[in-house]
């Protein structure tokens, strides 16, 4: 039997968010209403999403030697993410510095710090440590591109299914694509990578062809409230979104990829995994914030089951 775990290679930060009625003008100081310190980083968010979806989950990443380290480690552990592959390096833990005004408008300075210290050797060591326990590897691009590309190749060679969320979008060398089993960009990331402006299902299909032409086995383009488009050499299929009332779409993509990866690792078929990812993405939009909005397995089960009764889409 294939191991049911998920390994995530990626970033981990403390998100320091200041809330004020309005954002300061250049050089100005305003009085704020609140500050929160929350676990963040796309790698950590995907890991929490996979763990909450029920998969044994390891995050492979780097934290610093500072008080923020304990904040992120205890948050990850409390969400069920194994921290055995997180290294403390002689640097500072990554920080995303976020300001939000009363209308929800925000700006962010993401400083990778320790995340830049994740090396190809560390990734190799961690893949060796988890390869008997995990069958899926999730990747995003908030770590050094060279390390992310190496992780894709090493994990694929070790027999893991590599799922790449190419966010934030940046050019990647052509040689990485054949190691990617599933690529999960949103519309703007698909557009930035392929040069095809993705505005609807038809343009998403053209962007998907770009990935398949380069050796990706499955392009899964997320379209926000318009659902997702799944394209393989055999089949193209549009999945409509689950209807929800969104309040904050932050981390919908991380919820999607984490729950999708957890379902694949559990041995579920691809369509079921897509539906579970989409349900997790939809649910993440119904709560404010990033990692605190990620749904658990029960909430995903309920949304998928409720919908299956309505439209008969049960697997
Ligand atoms: P990202 O956060 O990376 O931009 P998306 O917004 O495309 O990613 O969201 C990922 C998935 O979450 C979508 O494919 C969809 O299934 C679900 N989702 C996102 N926004 C909504 C929404 N407003 N209503 C229903 N489902 C949504």
Q: Structural class of the helix and strand makeup?
A: alpha/beta
Low-confidence spans: none
CATH class: Alpha Beta
Q: Calculate Rg over CA atoms.
A: 19 Å
Principal-axis shape? globular
What percent strand? Answer: 15-25%
Please name the fourth-level CATH homologous superfamily: Ribokinase
Helical percentage: 25-40%
State the CATH topology.
UDP-N-acetylmuramoyl-L-alanine:D-glutamate ligase
Note the main attributes of this structure:
315 residues, UDP-N-acetylmuramoyl-L-alanine:D-glutamate ligase, four-stranded mixed β-sheet, globular, binds adenosine-5'-diphosphate
Give the topology, please.
Layout: E1 5-9, E2 13-19, E3 34-40, H1 42-52, E4 57-63, H2 67-78, E5 81-82, E6 86-88, E7 94-100, E8 106-111, H3 120-130, E9 134-139, H4 145-157, E10 161-164, E11 182-183, H5 187-194, H6 201-213, E12 218-222, E13 228-231, E14 236-239, H7 252-265, H8 270-284, H9 297-311
Parallel strand pairs: 1-4, 1-9, 2-7, 4-5, 4-6, 9-10, 10-11, 11-12
Antiparallel strand pairs: 2-3, 7-8, 12-13, 13-14
Helix pairs in contact: 1-7, 3-4, 5-6, 7-8, 8-9
Adenosine-5'-diphosphate (ADP) binds near residues 224, 227, 244, 253 and 285.
């Amino acid at each position: 039997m294939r191991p049911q775990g998920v390994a995530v290679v990626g970033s981990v930060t403390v998100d320091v968010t200041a809330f004020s009625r309005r954002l300061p003008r250049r050089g100005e100081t305003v009085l704020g209403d609140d500050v929160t310190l929350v676990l963040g980083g796309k790698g950590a968010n995907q890991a929490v999403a996979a763990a909450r979806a029920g998969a044994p989950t390891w995050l492979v990443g780097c934290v610093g030697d500072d008080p923020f380290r304990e904040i992120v480690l205890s948050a990850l552990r409390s969400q069920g993410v194994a921290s055995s592959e997180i290294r403390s390096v002689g640097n500072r833990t990554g920080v995303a510095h976020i300001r939000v005004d009363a209308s929800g408008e925000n700006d962010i300075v993401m400083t990778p710090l320790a995340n830049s210290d994740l090396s190809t050797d560390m990734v190799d060591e961690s893949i060796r440590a988890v390869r008997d326990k995990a069958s899926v590897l999730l990747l995003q691009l908030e770590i050094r591109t060279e390390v992310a590309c190496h992780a894709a190749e090493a994990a694929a060679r070790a027999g893991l299914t590599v799922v790449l969320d190419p966010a934030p979008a940046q050019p990647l060398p052509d040689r990485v694509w054949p190691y990617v089993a599933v690529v999960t960009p949103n519309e703007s990331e698909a557009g930035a990578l392929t040069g095809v402006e993705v505005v609807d299902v038809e343009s998403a299909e053209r962007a998907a062809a770009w990935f398949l032409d380069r050796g990706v086995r499955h392009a899964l383009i997320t379209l926000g409230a318009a659902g997702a488009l799944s394209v393989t050499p055999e089949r193209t299929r549009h999945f409509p979104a689950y209807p929800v009332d969104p309040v904050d779409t932050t981390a919908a993509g991380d919820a999607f990829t984490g729950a999708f990866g957890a379902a694949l690792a559990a041995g579920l078929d691809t369509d079921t995994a897509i539906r579970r990812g989409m349900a997790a993405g939809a649910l993440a939009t119904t709560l404010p914030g990033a990692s605190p909005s990620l749904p658990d397995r029960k909430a995903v089960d309920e949304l998928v089951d409720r919908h299956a009764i309505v439209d008969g889409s049960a697997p």
